[in-house]
Amino acid sequence: MPTSPRLPVGDVTAPVLTDQDGPPFVVINSDGAADCLLVCDHASNTIPQRFGELGLDEARLQEHIAWDIGAAAMTRRLAERLNAPAVMAGFSRLVVDCNRYLDDPAAFVEVSDQVEVPGNASLTAEAKKERAEALYRPYHAEIDRRIEGGLLSGRVPAVVAVHTMTERMRGEDLRPQEVTVCWARDGRLAVPFMRRLETVEGLVVGDNDPYGLDLGEDYTVPEHAMRRGLPHLQIEVRQDLVGDTAGALRLADLLYDAMAEPLASDAACGREYHWPLEGDVQPRR
Ligand SMILES: [Zn+2]
Fold first, then answer.
1. How far does the centroid of ligand 1 lie from the alpha carbon of residue 41, in Å?
2. Distance 278 CA to ligand 1 centre (A)
3. How far away, in angstroms, is 242 Cα from ligand 1 center?
4. Structural domain includes residue 274
């Protein structure tokens, strides 16, 4: 917790990140030898000092609107089990959502799951740019750097994106899916991974349900993996299962058991281009 008084919301005189803040991204197991890169866009609920709590009650910052509860713990565990590096965003998606295109209003949410975010009301283009330069671009540049480095040395890194989803949106019923595999067109890893998960007794697996991989909306996997033809996985785990360390480790181990073989198989070795295809609706840029 910060020890100094927080600045008022929207103090435009301060930089986005000061020396009281951490870095825009965190790398785990940097020298991991696997041909795989884990990414966690929504790992953190931290808000840079400059923004106060974005005008929100502190309790709101513990909720799914601020981050993917349990995702960082699962990513750390997967990095260890796979011996793969992981890049995790250092700040809350409420400041800028690293899995959205910057011209998508959802990158800077004014209302998230019926909660108004006062610190995001009517942001100017300059204010958005500042956040993007300080947080979003360094995170994605690090992912780029690692993937390009792998490719230059003749490797084809698979990209594994770890997310969690709330067990229910406000006012809705409990979601039955406990793990959802989000994919589009390139099922090289997604399908064998999903088939293995489906053999886990009692586990309810979603196939693009309740969320899929949305081209033009999701940013990280389409832009870093699909554009380069890299094998990839995007996973959503229901957050009530991973809210404590034991749960996060249990689910991460289930994911590991289901992805280890597909990642080691021929399917994960080459580059295949499934998107963009001629005639496709082009994503926002
Ligand atoms: Zn997420």
1. 6
2. 29
3. 14
4. no
Per-residue confidence band for 4, with pLDDT thresholds at 50, 70 and 90: very low
Residue 275 located in a structural domain: no
Residue 5 lies inside a defined structural domain of this protein: no
pLDDT tens digits, one per residue of 213-246: 999 999 999 999 999 999 999 999 999 999 999 9
Structurally, the chain folds into a number of domains equal to 1
CATH of the domain at 200: 3.40.630.40
Q: Is residue 17 part of a domain?
A: no
* Contact indicator for 48, 91 with CB cutoff of 8 Å: yes
Ligand 1 center from residue 209 Cα (angstroms): 14
Tokens 């609920």 correspond to: 45
What's the 71 CA to ligand 1 centre distance in angstroms? 8
Ligand 1 mean position, distance from CA 254 (Å): 19
Sequence-distant (≥ 6) Cβ neighbours of residue 58 within 8 angstroms? none
> Which sign, positive or negative, has the C-alpha torsion 149, 155, 156, 158?
negative
Adjacent-strand bridge partners of 237: 164, 179
Q: Calculate how far, in angstroms, residue 235's C-alpha sits from the geometric centre of ligand 1.
A: 9
Q: Residue 48's domain spans which residues?
A: 25-268
pTM (predicted TM-score): 0.93
pLDDT score of 10 = 54
In angstroms, what is the span from residue 139 Cα to ligand 1's centroid?
Answer: 15
